[in-house]
Amino acid sequence: MAIKLYLLLLVFLSSAIASFSLYEDQVGLMDWHQRYIGKVKHAVFHTQKTGRKRVIVSTEENVVASLDLRHGEIFWRHVLGTKDAIDGVDIALGKYVITLSSEGSMLRAWNLPDGQMVWETSLHSSHHSKSLLSVPINLKVDKDYPILVFGGGYLHAVSPLDGEVLWKKDFTAEGFEVQRVLQPLESSIIYVLGFLRSSEAVVYQIDSRSGEVVAEKTTAFPGGFSGEISSVSNDKVVVLDSTRSILVTISFLDGGDVSFQKTRISDLVEDSGEAEILPPRFSDMLAVKVNKRTVFVRVGGEGKLEVVDSLSDETAMSDSLPVADDQVAFASVHHEGSKIHLTVKLVDDLETVLLRESIQMDQHRGRVDKVFINNYIKTDRSNGFRALIVMEDHSLLLLQQGAIVWSREEGLASVTDVTTAELPVEKDGVSVAKVEHTLVDWLKGHILKLKGSLLLASPEDVAAIQEMRMKSSGRSKLTRDHNGFRKLFIALTRAGKLFALHTGDGRIVWSVLLNSPACARPSGVSLYQWQVPHHHAMDENPSVLVVGRCGSDSSSPGVLSFVDVYTGKEISSSDIGHSVVQVMPLPFTDSTEQRLHLIADTDGHVHLYPKTSEALSIFQREFQNVYWYNVEDDKGIIRGHGMKSSCSGETADEYCFTTRELWTVVFPSESEKIISTLTRKPNEVVHTQAKVSTDQDVLYKYVSRNLLFVATVSPKGAGEIGSVTPEESALVVYLIDTITGRILHRLSHQGCQGPVHAVFSENWVVYHYFNLRAHKYEVTVVEIYDQSRAENKNVWKLVLGKHNLTAPISSYSRPEMFTKSQSYFFPQSVKTIAVTSTAKGITSKQLLIGTIGDQILALDKRFVDPRRTLNPSQAEKEEGIIPLTDSLPIIPQSYITHSLKVEGLRGIVTAPAKLESTTHVFAYGVDLFYTRLAPSKTYDSLTDDFSYALLLITIVALVAAIYITWAISEKKELSEKWR
Amino acid sequence: MDKGKAVMGAGRRWAVDFSDQSTVPSSRDILDPPGFSRASPEQDDSATSRQKKDAEANWKLQKAWEVAQSPFKNLMMMGFMMWMAGNTVHLFSIGITFSALWQPLSALQSVGKIFEPFKDNKVELLMPKLVFLALNLGGLALGIWKLNTLGLLPTHASDWVSSLPPPQEVEHSGGGFSFH
């Protein structure tokens, strides 16, 4: 009975809740989706025999994909998990793609044509180590040629047919690290070369059928080895010694003997220094980098080394590739001005140049990072070459016959920060009619639409209507529109490149690779809106601030770069001479609407930007009211600082200020570890401070930008879910005022565990965590209300304006606050949570939950409302309070990504449109997805499919009817009079 | 003969209007015969006519009282309708409430007109008028009370603060995790 009731309730609920789903023909009208793969690490071309024009790539975003060589489209793609990094990829038996991932512990085979998984084998591994994949170059289906995988101290032989582990050899005891596996053709003996404690070279000869060690030869090398190794032929490898000044050729002969041959680098090159063996593999040759020069060293018959060529540093090289007539070729690419030169040479004879091409290259792609070449037979039977190059900005290009055949902006697969920007205002000169075609076209379109809405359209008409809607008028124009639907999303990528994406169709409007006078290529850290003119300085273009860093550690000097949003040009780039630990946008702007920013460095000083006297005077006015805090998650301390005085010292300028520590919150390290902190978005607009309940009662929201949400777990529970018992783990959340350091609220969840994903908006926090006792994910909402304002209830005082509700408040006035909270089960694991934001903050909010399935679920805030009760009263129901249920519903129609997936979802960004009802949603991961949402439906505008033609026709018909009836009545009256 | 002409224009040749009732001799073309006075025939009052007038005044007063009390019935009906409509805002209850507000208002506006027929020198109309006013004001009050129960009057604190923006904050802080 209860179940029946529950079902009934569910049916009622699902009908009562307005779902914001799309119709099938609305897909792609407002949203776009772009698929990427990330920066390519390995590329394997199909062999000639398989005949298809495809390339298999694996990337740093843990994607394995098959790309079309003609157009660069993705045939198939698999995104492995974030922890499942791909170590190697190869093609086995001519039909399987073999990937080795997770440091050599996961081996998978994918069907080459369609990407279906054929088998998956989990390999035993004891510790983290370098891994190695060796796939026999053999098309015969034979168990004699197994796939050899080394990783985590074990050598596994795996059958390429079904993924069965044929045998495994345990090397964990000796600490043996396999460096090379050689599988000579027509031989059942495998040579496994490795190092023992970096000072002994060991060669095992292993029977490939049984895994038995046939012979073992250990030779000590007193100098010791250092890592990199280059295999030059079947029986020789070259390695550097520990001082990196001697190249050691290791030859292992049939008998299993190992011999060393040392060559000093100073004997080869005059200006010696620390050398580095470069990764490209050639036969009988290796590339060594000495003193910023690339030196090609040929390995002679007896292990004798000789230098054959040397190149400048800016050269990228491919592995060698067998071409016809037992020749081996390799490609090298180097820059010269705005051009790149692709050269394909024979390894045996560096004078023979098979191909030399020069290609104009966009400056904003940076240097060439990697080259992969592939050959094909031209119609005149000569060899043609195509080169797949990976640029510094992570983009992937295919070069063939002196031209770029296609390019993919793979930098967008690793977006790190996103902000929005406005498009330029439409100029008077640009006529709308040009974009709107002619009046006839417009009418035709509307008549088609009318036919569609009256169900009179034929299938061709329907297709035409759909096409028309897809490229609807001015959707992708480069000017601002009245509703604010056209905007730019500025995305900063890991490669330090800035992209501007148009919300209309997702195309790249401009892109710029960051430069710095101090270092060649700074890494991008974060992105801020620098100048957004909307009241003053209207003739200036808006700009964004990119904070970068020269180097990877936090003490390396920072770089500020200002980029014009309209043109995409870097206005200026400056080396600021101090490190960047935190950037704080202040709520003040100067007369040109440049926002003031404070940048904190590692010494605890803050620096004011822009460095103008006007900004300084604004800042000094508010000097006492500016604070900053620092979360030291490794120590479990939050420190609050206030401004103290100007910096002293020679290097200091007047824009540098010292700080004093005001407060600290220390979490006990034995019981709590900070796992997540969160504040409100600084640009969020809140419409009202009052929350009115059903009985006309008023609650005053505690809306403060200076609130910090902190979640801590027991140190034991900081690991993966299920690694602790419920008794051992507790999750505690805090709300801390960042001015005074006061803990305003503390809530403890016993038996719960992270990871915590939270969203903070207005006066509420919603967070998602795992409940170990219930074995379920939970979502808790905490709403914060101001008790000290609750006295303002006298209507007359309010009418006359005698209240203090709009007076500025200070955190030092000790606000009394109380919270309301409620918890619900949530059936899914979550990757990220965001909330919609609108221009005035009037529209109701939706939570945007990035689920584990890489989709985005829109959940009304009404579902996470602490006022929900089991039996809401009639008045509460009318207000829209949903009866309390133990878990939050997942309504399939409310996935805003509909049938798409945002693979590798990492973040969701929302931005308001000018139209109050509408918000822009941009999700990024490996893929990009954009859509527009109207959480309370578009109550302030007509929908796109509104039939203006029908309205027009109705009006015309009505006017005509009025005239006709008027004429008739006139006539009738006249005849009446004559009677 | 302007009128005759005007009529002739419509197709008739001529016409004489016998129903000319204008009392001012100068406006007429023909003078009154000597000895004829145009004064009202009621001048010649008699006892019978005075009695008649008293009866008429009484009747008028009675009627005026009836009219004055008529809103009471209305009031009762309105009350019943309001009770039927309930306390939630929807089309029916809003319609009822607004008619409950409109009726007394329009009645109050046209008090003079309503009591016009009963106007008499001898009839004291003040009391009926006051009763009429009181009852209509009662109706109005009922309507306003209904409006309030529907929550459409700004009598709660929530009605005055619901659009107040959050207060400005004096202090500003920023920060968070250090960039790694």
Automatic annotation (TrEMBL), chain A:
Topology term for the membrane: Single-pass type I membrane protein
SUPFAM superfamilies to which the protein is assigned, alphabetical: Quinoprotein alcohol dehydrogenase-like
Pfam families in the record: Beta-prop_EMC1_N, EMC1_C
PANTHER family linked to this entry: ER MEMBRANE PROTEIN COMPLEX SUBUNIT 1 (PTHR21573)
Name of the gene encoding the protein in the UniProt record: LOC108817736
Listed GO biological process terms: protein folding in endoplasmic reticulum
Transmembrane segment boundaries: none
InterPro entries found in the cross-reference section: Beta-prop_EMC1_1st, EMC1, EMC1_C, PQQ_b-propeller_rpt, Quinoprotein_ADH-like_sf, WD40/YVTN_repeat-like_dom_sf
Domain EMC1 first beta-propeller per the UniProt entry, residue ranges: 22-410
Record's keyword terms, sorted: Endoplasmic reticulum, Glycoprotein, Membrane, Signal, Transmembrane, Transmembrane helix
Family, similarity comment: Belongs to the EMC1 family.
Domain ER membrane protein complex subunit 1 C-terminal: residue ranges: 761-978
Subunit structure: Component of the ER membrane protein complex (EMC).
Name this polypeptide is given: ER membrane protein complex subunit 1
Keyword Membrane: yes
Subcellular location per the Swiss-Prot or TrEMBL entry: Endoplasmic reticulum membrane
Automatic annotation (TrEMBL), chain B:
PANTHER family in UniProt: ER MEMBRANE PROTEIN COMPLEX SUBUNIT 4
Cited InterPro entries: TMEM85/Emc4 (IPR009445)
Subcellular localization, as worded in the UniProt entry: Endoplasmic reticulum membrane
Alphabetical UniProt keywords: Endoplasmic reticulum, Membrane, Transmembrane, Transmembrane helix
One Pfam family of this chain: EMC4
Name of the featured protein: ER membrane protein complex subunit 4
A GO-annotated cellular component: endoplasmic reticulum membrane
Chief place of localization: endoplasmic reticulum
Protein family per UniProt: Belongs to the EMC4 family.
Membrane topology: Multi-pass membrane protein
Region (Disordered): 19-53
Transmembrane regions: 80-105, 125-145
